[in-house]
Amino acid sequence: MVWRDSSGKALDDYARPSVAVDVAVLTVTGDRLAVLVVDSDRGLSLPGTFVHPRETLRDAAARALSRKAAITGLDFHQLGMFDDPDRDDRGWVLSMAHGAAIAQEKLPRTAQLVSISDTGTHERLAFDHDRIVTEAVLDLRQRYRAAADPDHLLPDEFTLLELRRLHETIFAQEFPKDTFRRRFISDLVGTGQRSSAETGRPAELFRVR
């Protein structure tokens, strides 16, 4: 028996878009945010792919990262659906955008990165991937407002200065030293060790509580 709606139409009577996934993988390189990109026939783009039959969005995103960027085991999450009918010149394509953040040293050595200023990329990306990067940066900032280093962009042990500089890079602004310390000190645990600074007084090392 074929299901039909109140107008008598079956599912096959409705036009169907293609469904894709794209993943914005953010990292910090030097004093800048950057996003992982790959080469495509439209130029630089985020790792992405079309969803296969009976495949979940998450599995498709993991497949895109593995096959196009040689990344496996990365923790990522959905940012939202991008559904502008004109977003892809190949046809009607919806994309579920995903976001992630990872320390640069954990990326493959061959990873291509494009720098980000505030929330925009320095180079134009294909399709609407610039918009996806903006959403990924805003999402990253939301997580770092709530926690010291939820994505483990720093080593396991770090100084308060290193943590503050990480936040300043993510938020593209400077933070007063004392205010920043008061905000996050309760989220940290002192290790009892000090940094091996070449100049100046060695600073106390912390871990995320």
Automatic annotation (TrEMBL):
Keywords: Hydrolase. The keyword Hydrolase applies. The keyword Hydrolase applies. It holds the Pfam family WHD_NrtR. InterPro entries: NUDIX_hydrolase-like_dom_sf, WH-like_DNA-bd_sf, WH_DNA-bd_sf, WHD_NrtR. Residues 152-207 form the NrtR DNA-binding winged helix domain. GO terms for molecular function: hydrolase activity. Transmembrane segments: none annotated. It comes from the Bacteria. SUPFAM superfamilies: Nudix (SSF55811), Winged helix' DNA-binding domain (SSF46785). This is NUDIX hydrolase. It comes from Gordonia rubripertincta (Rhodococcus corallinus).
